[in-house]
Amino acid sequence: MKFETTVSSKGQVTVPIEIRKRLGVKGGDRLRFVVKEGDVVLRPARSDANPFEKFIGALSPGGQPDGTAVAWVRSMRDQNEDD
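The structure assignment produced for this chain is given below.
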């Protein structure tokens, strides 16, 4: 597949829809240009950080304060039955 676009006087280009779909990007997303062995590769600019890292340690090792998710669900069901 080959796609062409024109560079505007401001250095802007329109990324063809087929390429945006393949990259999984939409308006407002950032792109990264990587020069590799004389070629330029276009990639989505993704953060290297794990977005879930801030939640590490939020729960006990078993998942709930008493150590089991099953016990937690049972306690929630018991509370609902009392209502």
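Interim note for the steering committee: The chain is about 25% helix and 15% strand. The chain has two domains: 1-46, 53-82.
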